Amino acid sequence: MDDNTSKPEDATKPTDEQREMQAELDHQNEDDPNAPGLHQSRNDLADESRR
């Protein structure tokens, strides 16, 4: 069984399935104004990785 539908030709690029999943994750809780952290973006959070 050689099913290469989920493997991209270039491993640095996402598959359609990965793109769909990421879109779902990016837009979850958009319709809930009380969702935790909804008012924050990644740009609003402190970057503690650089010391």
Automatic annotation (TrEMBL):
It comes from the Bacteria. Residues 1-30, 41-51 have a biased composition (Basic and acidic residues). Residues 1-51 are annotated as: Disordered. This is Uncharacterized protein. It comes from Mycobacterium kubicae.
